[in-house]
Amino acid sequence: MVGMWLLAAPASAQPAQPNDSTPPPAELPATDAPDTAAPIVAATGSRSAENAVRQAGDAFGSTIGREVIGIYNQMNVRGFSPVAAGNVRIDGLYFDPVVTPSTRLSRTTTIRVGLSALGSPFPAPTGLVDFGFRRPSSDAAASLLLAADEWGTVNAEVDAVLPASTSLSFGLGASARIESGQDATRENSFGGTLIADWMPAPGLALTPFVSLLYQSLDDHRLTFQTASEFLPPLLPRRQRFGPDWVNGSGLDINIGVLGDWQVAPQWLLRAGLFRSSRNRERQMTNLIRALQPDRTGTQRVIVDPRLNFAAISGEVRLTRQIDEGPRRHQIHLAVRGRNGDRRFGGSDILELGPVQIDTPSRVPEPAFRFSQQQFDDVKQITGGIAYEGRWLGVGEIAAGLQWTDYKKRIDLPGGGVQATDDRLLLYNITVSATISDGLVIYAGTVNGLEESGVAPGNAANRNEALPAIRTRQIDAGLRLAITDQIKLVAGVFDITKPYFNLDANNRFDVLGDVSNRGVEASIAGPLTPTLSIVAGGVWLWPRVVAPGAAPGRIGEHPVGAISQRVEFSADWRPPFAPGLSFDTRVAYRSSETATVSNSVAIPARTVIDLGGRYRFKLGRNNALLRVAVSNLFDVEGYDLRGAGAYGPIPGRLAQAYVTLDF
């Protein structure tokens, strides 16, 4: 191979020109449309330049290629999950994911909360997750990544841009992963992606895509449930408990098209239509129940027949932009909708008998006896109008109204249909004021009709789609430019929504209402030309109100509540070693409420990661060697997987990858 004999030399200070394009913008583009003036991060042909510490704008959560940074992520923003709530966007357009986009489709992922949500015409109480789409450009390029870790996982990723003409380019992506997980479970997957970027006429861009991921083998992790309300003994690591037949396979598909049309000067029409689906030939939940302090319990395996989940979603948005000197006005008219259907249930519950958790299970595979499955169907359509006004040096205002119509139907096993209908007027308003050249303050409120996710695997109604819920958020804060490049962002918030968890009959259902009040802060940017930092924290005061609950049954804190999270990341490039950099991440989290009654909590912990990069040349190609150790001091602890359900957190893991750009 070429890398075996070409001499490595330090890379130049400037990264290669990115090769993922954006659609033609309006003369004054809509704010949530891709910005051609901004550098394109994690683009095909420049993946060796990926560096989350240097490329993240704040500490509120970003994914840059394969690197993740920040106090929030797709599944946890201000104590809630924006993905479960249905608050997902692709390049700013509404998307209802059964399967979130892979890194073959998505260059970046950004969490939009507080001030960063300005520019998104229709925000949501639980925040937004916005996937930056990987659009092929008119220049040929490719990136190759090869990775491995000490547990035996190997991974390969390749992305390429192939121009066919001046108006048509193709993006190709492929991945293969043979995984040995933290508990020695196996997951083998193979994926492929095809993207086309076509400009059939000036001002018009169409981007169809299809992305598939086939899981040929997926061992299911073991989850531990204690006999009563106590914290389990430390759980075994690097042990595949089994039995060996507890695994599954399946196919994930995302397919769709994005369109951008400059209808006329100052008029931009954007549209997206998507279908997301997951098919599982079989799926299992592997449980150790009634776990005792002496490490004994009983094993239950829940086996599902074939499961199908699919959702069609999309948005059409027309934006009119008007400029008056230092003032800019944008008016958005939008229609978005979704239609989701699921086949679930019919499971066979297998009791495999007493076990000792340090001794793997070797029970032979029995015959499965499935029962009748259930079907549910969700339809929702929303129309809205929004206004955004910006006055240079003065401030901004964003306001919107939406009317949403929601219908859900569940076919019950014994016959009949359970119906849920809701109609709601949604509103949002946010105002920001520029106090000085470096200080902006803001305040806003928004309500929503959001999804509440799916009942977990340890619930009596496992896999059941839960009803949509009414939610509300109030927030305020500031952004302070400490220097031209270092920004401090801080805010306060109050989010209210119904509280779902396990009831006395082990059904995952509404128990009351939960309010998450909190303070969040972020500081990010280069302290010196060689040292960059991203630091942030969130302090929560969650509270559950459950009128009529039996005394002691429901505590005042929701399951999974973590009152404090603080994260600090830094990247240092020593001036005496061109191409070399070192990075670290320190993540602290306070104790986590583990049971509905609040009688058990997972202890606080601090985890430290350490890594390094070496940017060099292979011939004329930019390349990167990345080495990292996560959980450097091998901290032990518990991963909460539901009320009273636990797994081990990963131990120390050394990993490395090489990226080569062409």
Describe the structure.
It is a single chain. The chain has helices at residues 52-55, 82-85, and strands at residues 8-10, 62-64, 67-69, 88-90, 93-95, 106-112, 128-133, 141-149, 154-163, 168-180, 186-201, 204-219, 222-226, 247-264, 267-291, 296-304, 307-324, 327-344, 348-356, 374-391, 395-411, 417-436, 439-450, 469-481, 487-502, 508-526, 531-545, 564-572, 580-589, 592-593, 601-602, 605-618, 621-630, 638-640, 645-648, 653-661. The protein has 662 residues and is an all-beta fold. The protein contains two helices and 36 strands. Helix content is 1%, strand content 58%. The strands form three sheets. The protein has a 22-stranded antiparallel β-barrel. A six-stranded mixed β-sheet has the order 3-2-6-7-4-5. A two-stranded antiparallel ribbon has the order 30-31.
